[in-house]
């Protein structure tokens, strides 16, 4: 049986498996309670031309681009940086401190927008595109337009220093850290998530069953990770911790998956107890500094399927939060605990199955719907995707990807290669781009393996739209790459699936800054 192991390093009251800001071209230079300064770095954009209305137009695309900005019916590239900001309704100011530009060496007009695409009346290199709330976290979206027409030519931005400021904010100190739905991948200043999360009244945490009179503490989880509950948090929630028997503390969960639609389908009639770790300091009592640790799972994530032999994505379309219940009533059975086990002699495992996934939520090609896609590829266009491996086993990579097309193509032919592998050619048919006023999207999911070109360090997977018999453009929706690689942590988390084997295995982890918490999630 394959097992999934999670190593987390706990360093704060509430710990999420953060991997840092996903857009590594953004770096914070300075940060205070009244704002921050960050630097953006842009790689050389892809520059080509296309014909619109029998006129040659310029198309410029950046790897860091997150969308397009229509100004005077010309499509400018747009990059958005998301920041956590104070949870109060106060102005946010953005200033461009320094910018480095480079000539594109052309005066051609930019490509035109679609007929129904909104046109903006003004344009600035930096500005606020919007502020709002993601759960209990207030965020600001900072728009950067890395292209300008200056001195009779187009110039693109290579780097910029941007200052974002707000009135000085000092959060109210308390012992309770509110859970937030925002992952550290989503915002640049991830370390400010807890500081800028809006606090809520805690009186609703303690619940009482109408049927049994038993008391519970209700918690909501949106991200996979190890969560820590302190005695002080329980006291603030209304729990009399001095009367708690630590041997009877239990955690329950309903799984977080959608219930089956069939009326006669089998379904769970009760909550399931999950194992926890109770750190009581050795005195058998719960006080304000003692902690309870449990592994919380998202309702929208990846899990390894023994049956399929690969990671699969799961989602609950009806919920964004997984609910956990903490109970302390005396029962005859022993409460479930994570146990420390000593391994028998065996072979030390150095490799495991790792998942690399890319979800290209950059733009949508229709006005509604949940699907977002990568930038469009015209015939001849290609896009490179970078993956970093440590010490991969050759020929172990398995790639799955979904391609979509927005118009007729019979067929659309594409090619895929990993590093210098032999190009894998595949094709699919797509139908007309519209029907009765609706946008029609055709798609295909393809799998590739035995590419035999995996290497340590940076690896480039290239997808090229070779040709089409029709007028379709293609888009990369998502990519999944599973590979047998050396065990390595990313952002404080080590997650992998064990290769099938009946032999006893020993796993080792090192280079943690303090004692890690290790949990086996099977």
How would you describe the overall organization of this protein?
By secondary structure, this protein is mainly beta. The chain has one helix at 231-236, and strands spanning 4-8, 26-32, 35-41, 46-52, 55-61, 67-71, 74-84, 93-103, 126-134, 137-144, 147-150, 153-165, 206-208, 215-221, 225-230, 250-253, 272-274, 277-279, 291-296, 300-305, 310-315, 322-327, 347-348, 351-359, 382-389, 398-405, 409-418, 424-430, 434-435, 438-439, 442-449, 457-470, 474-486, 493-497, 505-506, 517-521. The strands form eleven sheets. Strands 2, 3, 8, 11 and 12 form a five-stranded antiparallel beta sheet that branches. Strands 13-14-22-16-17 form a five-stranded antiparallel beta sheet, with no helix packed on it. Strand 20 (300-305) and strand 21 form a beta hairpin.
Task: Kindly list the characteristics that best describe this protein.
single chain, about 525 residues, mainly beta, Immunoglobulin-like, Jelly Rolls, 3 domains, five-stranded antiparallel β-sheet
Kindly summarize this structure in a few lines.
It is built from one helix and 36 strands.
Mean pLDDT: 79
Helix count? 1
CATH-defined fold name of the largest domain: Immunoglobulin-like
Cα-atom Rg, whole angstroms?
Answer: 26 Å
CATH top level label of the largest domain: Mainly Beta
Task: Briefly note the structural class of the backbone.
Answer: mainly beta
| Unreliable residue runs | 1-24, 173-182, 365-369
- Give the distance, in angstroms, between the N- and C-terminal Cα atoms: 9 Å
Strand percentage: over 45%
* CATH architecture assignment of the largest domain: Sandwich
- Per DSSP E runs of 2 or more residues, the count of β-strands stands at 36
Helical coverage, percent range: under 10%
For the report, how would you describe the main beta sheet? 5 strands, antiparallel
Total number of distinct structural domains: 3
> Which shape, going by the Cα principal axes?
globular
